[in-house]
Amino acid sequence: xxxxxxxxxxxxxxxxxxxxxxxxxxxxxxxxxxxxxxxxxxxxxxxxxxxxxxxxxxxxxxxxxxxxxxxxxxxxxxxxxxxxxxxxxxxxxxxxxxxxxxxxxxxxxxxxxxxxxxxxxxxxxxxxxxxxxxxxxxxxxxxxxxxxxxxxxxxxxxxxxxxxxxxxxxxxxxxxxxxxxxxxxxxxxxxxxxxxxxxxxxxxxxxxxxxxxxxxxxxxxxxxxxxxxxxxxxxxxxxxxxxxxxxxxxxxxxxxxxxxxxxxxxxxx
Length: 269
Ligand code: 1GP
What we know:
Radius of gyration: 17 Å
Strand order of the largest sheet: 1-2-3-4-5-6-7-8
Bound molecules: SN-glycerol-1-phosphate
Strand content: 15-25%
């Protein structure tokens, strides 16, 4: 998947059906396990692999994980071209950095969520990490996906690390203003995050309000554990649903593939 515009249009052009992506945290599993999980997810219908985490990621574990995933996807892609009954296009999913900061990047990534953590109270996450990382991203030719990142309650680890002033489930005025601001800045994506392992996902109210307030591609993640919760978020207006813990809780690839297939089917039912 080469070319900045290609990655941006793949991720940002809104589709008639919502898409699913997995989040792989390089701090939680070795690269070979990450690659197996990525293949199972893509086989099941996931359409993007995000790689990142809020803590314990660095240039080394992020790079090794991305390379392992890329190599496995390429092998499968090659196999698909040899077989008439498999659709090669299905395998061309981007591997996208979802970084904790400028110290956890890899030149091998197809794209990066180039984000402003809009409701952080710290300049470090609003702009400083981005300024430090920009030359690396430019040199490596990684496609930046301009994104407003909003952390909603309960917020989890990312809420703490990012020094976030969390958005409450019924604070629709605030999410609306942020959505408009993200659009005015020229971002292409608005990511509504409840925090990994959140006890409750982002509320439908917040998603609906964001949807009404801007034309951006909306990503929703954090605490989504089954297809029913995903469906609720999609009905409210999500274009992408991200799952991290769900993917990382299965060690058997066939079982994971089955779980994600069912998840996607329910999500779009
Ligand atoms: C990505 O933080 C999410 O936005 C992932 O959350 O691990 O709860 O799926 P889960």
